[in-house]
């Protein structure tokens, strides 16, 4: 009996073990088959053109340098695995967004960028990081709504999500689709009035700051326009010019009064994004793309050097307490200075090739004097706040920290050297790929114009540096408040004024003569009418007899 029970349990256990292994093997087999099929399906629809290949090469170059830099910068962090996982997810989302010709897969990359960027902004788990992350997430959800509507409009018209096969059928009748693309790119690339979230999202670690705040996150809006670049010729270019110039002006003025090193870099990024949208409004999509790639290199170098300064000063970001850094850390100071002169378009550095080309193109483009003047004025603001930054960091004697640590690990040195090499030679390498040579022959008036702007900016810098005009400084600070606390000022200026008017209206009208004449009078009239109805109801039999005799004599006599 005992032997039969043991045999029964043995066969029972063997049967279920065999069933479990069979199900597990088949499940695993079908999962592998499905994964391979999905992988083959996805890779078969990757869209490898020269735009995506160039973009991906720069994404991998900058991401590799940032990850290598993070080995030294994030050394000793308790959540380092989570940090690297989020960075890899950010890169993977960007790969999906760049290489996918399908709008659904493009949507996965678009949402992935927003979600992972939110997780990176709240990486340091404190209240300010949470507020910054929520502002970033909610503002970018507005762009997601525009993107969802764009996908719906596209599918409603062509019953497909493969947008690259229908590019020849677009015309100016699809203006709704055009402006959905524009507003989606405005929110992601922080153009006015959606520009205030970029300086707020400062809580991410500094290596990630170079990824989240310029490449690839905020450039995803520009990349969306690159994919639909044939729409530029159908939209209102003056509207795009106005938005880009407004963004450049607000960010330039804000950077001139800001003392936080990270926020200065964020305002500079905002200004350059507006600059690229202005180039797009002139119809130069290819030139804007080349400037984006060149700018991404020295922008990342600028952020990483700024992160080293912040790390050395034990987390302090105020440039007024940093000074004489060229004596303390000459290697990083030289790298930082190279990135700044690349930004200013110093001849034969990488920024010179694209900026000089764009400025010469603006001379021959036919737009009015208002746009022309403000375009060069915004470019001059770039020089003002960058030379202000150079003065505070390198030539000022305001070094006031007793405990600093300027030691740098080998990983950080190698990353900065690679980016610095790309800053010096990257522009020439890219422009050597041009098949045709372009020459601009300018008149003498246009040749003298840069000297006029140079003299004007010199006077502007003099007035700003010495503070001889209080109104001038106040105007700078007002513009800074407009871009940094845009919605706060909007509610204070418009809604608070409106509510103040409502309070006065309530005191003088609702609670005054209006109440006496209308509400009290109406209440008295309704009371009188109620009394009349009551009297009529109490005398109802008399009324019945009265109306009976009245109609009887009226009809029969």
UniProtKB/TrEMBL annotation:
<feature type="transmembrane region" description="Helical">
    <location>
        <begin position="273"/>
        <end position="294"/>
    </location>
</feature>
<feature type="transmembrane region" description="Helical">
    <location>
        <begin position="361"/>
        <end position="383"/>
    </location>
</feature>
<dbReference type="GO" id="GO:0003954">
    <property type="term" value="F:NADH dehydrogenase activity"/>
</dbReference>
<feature type="transmembrane region" description="Helical">
    <location>
        <begin position="173"/>
        <end position="190"/>
    </location>
</feature>
<dbReference type="GO" id="GO:0008137">
    <property type="term" value="F:NADH dehydrogenase (ubiquinone) activity"/>
</dbReference>
<feature type="transmembrane region" description="Helical">
    <location>
        <begin position="413"/>
        <end position="434"/>
    </location>
</feature>
<feature type="transmembrane region" description="Helical">
    <location>
        <begin position="106"/>
        <end position="125"/>
    </location>
</feature>
<feature type="transmembrane region" description="Helical">
    <location>
        <begin position="196"/>
        <end position="218"/>
    </location>
</feature>
<feature type="transmembrane region" description="Helical">
    <location>
        <begin position="331"/>
        <end position="349"/>
    </location>
</feature>
<dbReference type="InterPro" id="IPR003945">
    <property type="entry name" value="NU5C-like"/>
</dbReference>
<feature type="transmembrane region" description="Helical">
    <location>
        <begin position="513"/>
        <end position="533"/>
    </location>
</feature>
<dbReference type="GO" id="GO:0042773">
    <property type="term" value="P:ATP synthesis coupled electron transport"/>
</dbReference>
<comment type="function">
    <text>Core subunit of the mitochondrial membrane respiratory chain NADH dehydrogenase (Complex I) that is believed to belong to the minimal assembly required for catalysis. Complex I functions in the transfer of electrons from NADH to the respiratory chain. The immediate electron acceptor for the enzyme is believed to be ubiquinone.</text>
</comment>
<feature type="transmembrane region" description="Helical">
    <location>
        <begin position="230"/>
        <end position="253"/>
    </location>
</feature>
<dbReference type="InterPro" id="IPR001750">
    <property type="entry name" value="ND/Mrp_TM"/>
</dbReference>
<feature type="transmembrane region" description="Helical">
    <location>
        <begin position="540"/>
        <end position="556"/>
    </location>
</feature>
<feature type="transmembrane region" description="Helical">
    <location>
        <begin position="31"/>
        <end position="48"/>
    </location>
</feature>
<dbReference type="GO" id="GO:0016020">
    <property type="term" value="C:membrane"/>
</dbReference>
<feature type="transmembrane region" description="Helical">
    <location>
        <begin position="389"/>
        <end position="406"/>
    </location>
</feature>
<feature type="transmembrane region" description="Helical">
    <location>
        <begin position="301"/>
        <end position="319"/>
    </location>
</feature>
<feature type="transmembrane region" description="Helical">
    <location>
        <begin position="446"/>
        <end position="466"/>
    </location>
</feature>
<feature type="transmembrane region" description="Helical">
    <location>
        <begin position="475"/>
        <end position="501"/>
    </location>
</feature>
<feature type="transmembrane region" description="Helical">
    <location>
        <begin position="81"/>
        <end position="99"/>
    </location>
</feature>
<feature type="domain" description="NADH:quinone oxidoreductase/Mrp antiporter transmembrane">
    <location>
        <begin position="102"/>
        <end position="376"/>
    </location>
</feature>
<dbReference type="Pfam" id="PF00361">
    <property type="entry name" value="Proton_antipo_M"/>
</dbReference>
<feature type="transmembrane region" description="Helical">
    <location>
        <begin position="7"/>
        <end position="25"/>
    </location>
</feature>
<feature type="transmembrane region" description="Helical">
    <location>
        <begin position="55"/>
        <end position="75"/>
    </location>
</feature>
<keyword id="KW-0472">Membrane</keyword>
<keyword id="KW-1133">Transmembrane helix</keyword>
<feature type="transmembrane region" description="Helical">
    <location>
        <begin position="145"/>
        <end position="166"/>
    </location>
</feature>
<protein>
    <recommendedName>
        <fullName>NADH:ubiquinone reductase (H(+)-translocating)</fullName>
        <ecNumber>7.1.1.2</ecNumber>
    </recommendedName>
</protein>
<dbReference type="GO" id="GO:0015990">
    <property type="term" value="P:electron transport coupled proton transport"/>
</dbReference>
<keyword id="KW-0812">Transmembrane</keyword>
<keyword id="KW-0496">Mitochondrion</keyword>
């Amino acid at each position: 009996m005992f032997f039969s029970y043991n045999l029964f349990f043995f066969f029972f256990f063997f049967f279920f073990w065999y069933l479990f292994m069979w199900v597990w093997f088949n499940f695993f087999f079908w999962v592998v088959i499905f994964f391979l099929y999905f992988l083959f399906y996805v890779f078969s629809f990757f869209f490898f053109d020269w735009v995506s290949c160039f973009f991906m090469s720069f994404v991998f170059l900058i991401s590799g340098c940032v990850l290598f830099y993070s080995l030294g910068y994030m050394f000793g962090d308790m959540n380092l695995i989570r940090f690297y996982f989020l960075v890899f997810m950010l890169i993977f989302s960007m790969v999906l967004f760049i290489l996918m010709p399908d709008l659904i897969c493009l949507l996965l990359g678009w949402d992935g960028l927003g979600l992972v960027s939110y997780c990176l902004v709240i990486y340091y788990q404190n209240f300010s990081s949470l507020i910054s992350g929520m502002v970033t997430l909610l503002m970018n959800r507005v762009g997601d709504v525009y993107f969802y509507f764009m996908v719906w409009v596209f599918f409603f018209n062509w019953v497909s999500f493969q947008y690259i096969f229908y590019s020849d059928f677009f015309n100016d009748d699809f203006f709704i689709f055009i402006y959905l693309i524009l507003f989606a790119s405005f929110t992601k690339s922080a153009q006015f009035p959606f520009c205030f979230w970029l300086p707020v999202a400062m809580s991410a670690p500094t290596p990630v700051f170079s990824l989240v705040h310029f490449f690839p996150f905020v450039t995803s809006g520009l990349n969306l326009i690159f994919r639909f670049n044939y729409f530029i010729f159908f939209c209102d270019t003056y509207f795009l010019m106005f938005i880009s110039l407004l963004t450049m002006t607000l960010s330039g003025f804000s950077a001139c009064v800001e003392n936080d090193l990270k926020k200065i870099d964020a305002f500079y990024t905002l200004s350059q994004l507006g600059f690229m949208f202005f180039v797009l409004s002139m119809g130069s999509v290819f030139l804007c793309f080349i400037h984006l790639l060149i700018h991404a290199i020295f922008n990342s170098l600028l952020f990483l050097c700024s992160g080293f300064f912040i790390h050395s000063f034990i987390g302090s970001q105020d440039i007024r307490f940093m000074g004489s850094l060229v004596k303390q850390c000459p290697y990083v100071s030289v790298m930082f200075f190279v990135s700044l002169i690349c930004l200013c378009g110093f001849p034969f550095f990488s920024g010179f090739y694209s900026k000089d080309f764009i400025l010469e193109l603006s001379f021959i483009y036919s737009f009015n004097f208002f746009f022309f003047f403000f375009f060069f004025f915004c470019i001059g603001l770039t020089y003002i706040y960058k030379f202000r930054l150079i003065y505070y960091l390198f030539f000022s004697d305001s070094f006031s920290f007793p405990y600093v640590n300027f030691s740098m690990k080998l990983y950080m040195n190698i990353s900065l050297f690679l980016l610095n090499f790309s800053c010096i030679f990257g522009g020439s390498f890219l422009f050597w790929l041009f098949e045709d040579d372009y020459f601009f022959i300018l008149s003498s008036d246009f040749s003298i114009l840069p000297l006029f702007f140079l003299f004007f900016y010199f006077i502007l810098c003099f007035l700003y540096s010495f503070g001889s005009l209080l109104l001038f400084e106040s105007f700078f600070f007002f513009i800074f408040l407009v871009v940094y606390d845009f919605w706060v000022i909007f509610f204070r200026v418009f809604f608070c004024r409106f509510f103040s008017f409502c309070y006065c209206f309530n005191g003088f009208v609702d609670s005054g003569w209006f109440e006496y004449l209308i509400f009290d009078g109406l209440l008295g009239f309704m009371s009188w009418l109620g009394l009349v109805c009551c009297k009529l109801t109490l005398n109802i039999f008399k009324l019945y007899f009265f109306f009976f005799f009245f109609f009887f004599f009226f009809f029969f006599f």
